[in-house]
Amino acid sequence: MTEAWTDHALKALRAACHTVDGASLLALLRTHDPVGVLQQCGDALIAAVFRGVPGARDVAIACRSNLRERGWPGDDVLAEQLDTVVDGAVSALRPLSADLEELSGLLEGDPTWGGGRIDLDTGECRFALADTEESWDEEEPEGTERWLHVPCEGSRDAYRDMEDFITTLDDQDLARFLGIAIQGPGAFRRFKDMLATSPAQLRRYWMFSAERQHGRARAWLADHGYRPTLSGGH
Questions:
Q1: Residue 25: pLDDT above 70?
Q2: Which neighbouring-strand residues pair with 117?
Q3: pLDDT (0 to 100) of residue 43
Q4: H/E run at residue 35
Q5: Alpha carbons 62 and 70: distance in angstroms, whole number
Q6: Are 38 and 78 in contact, with CB atoms under 8 Å apart?
Q7: 8 A C-beta contact, residue 162 and residue 188
Q8: Counting CB atoms within 10 angstroms of each CB, which of 24, 126, 144, 177 has the fewest?
Q9: If pLDDT is split at 50, 70 and 90, which confidence band does 110 have?
Q10: Contacts of 44 (CB under 8 A, 6+ apart)
Q11: Which has more confidence, 113 or 94?
Q12: In whole angstroms, how large is the CA radius of gyration of the chain?
């Protein structure tokens, strides 16, 4: 029987992914339901399999199956990435050490930032507002393709995440109130304020939202010919 994800467990998961600590990652995935964090820990899991961490391959096989069954945006891409370390499949995507959370911020952040770009040498994500046209010209020698432009696609997908999350609730009264809250301007603020009355559901929503955002960022990157990779990954 798996435990529910707590704030402490999620913090430990992020730390394990950041440090590519395969043993700690596997321990968390064995004691908690991995389905809610597949996109968030997928690249660290790939690194764990590549490094030969005991048990990592079996966990990757199970997660790959869960991804294909769930079928959210980006799930098929991550499943195919897992194929490369589980079955030795060859990926046509080029590795890039881009942070999916940062990329999601460019894609779905405040439109006033205007998207941004990824440094194809380092994987660094940079908001457009932090750059000037002069800096683009100065940093990119003529004839090179160092930067990948990232447009800001707005909040439409994030709004759909709220709608879809509401359908997962067993509490029909809360679901009804949230459905009303997301109508009209200020929907995001009202939704989060109301959901804050139920800390457990608010935690579920942040997991749900982060998972969807990571998946969409992964899918966008794949559409442009790249896959995220971590130090020690494949």
A1: yes
A2: 126, 149
A3: 97
A4: none
A5: 12
A6: yes
A7: yes
A8: 144
A9: confident
A10: 16, 17, 20, 21, 22, 25, 230
A11: 94
A12: 19
User: Beta strands 147-150 and 116-119: pairing type?
Assistant: antiparallel
Q: Calculate mean pLDDT across residues 59-79.
A: 97
Distance, CA of 97 to CA of 22 (rounded, Å): 18
Residue 142 has what pLDDT? 45
- Percentage of residues of the chain with pLDDT beyond 70: 91
Strand 125-127: give its sheet, edge to edge: 125-127, 116-119, 147-150
Write out the two tokens for 189.
Answer: 């603020």
Look-up of token digits 């139920």: 198
Phi-psi region of 47 (alpha: psi -120 to 50; beta: other; left: phi over 0): alpha
* C-alpha to C-alpha distances, 9 to 23, 60, 203, nearest whole angstrom: 14, 20, 12
Q: 151: which 2 tokens?
A: 């447009």
Residue 51 · residue 191 · CB < 8 Å:
no
pLDDT of residue 144: 57
For residues 64-83, average pLDDT: 97
- Asked if 41 and 29 count as a contact pair (C-beta separation under 8 A), the reply is yes
Beta bridge partners of 219: none
Summarised one tens digit per residue, pLDDT across range 150-162 is 999 889 999 999 9
d(CA 232, CA 234): 7
Which one-letter DSSP state was computed for residue 111?
G
Taking CA atoms, 66 is separated from 78, 112, 155, 210, 231, in Å, by 11, 37, 27, 17, 25
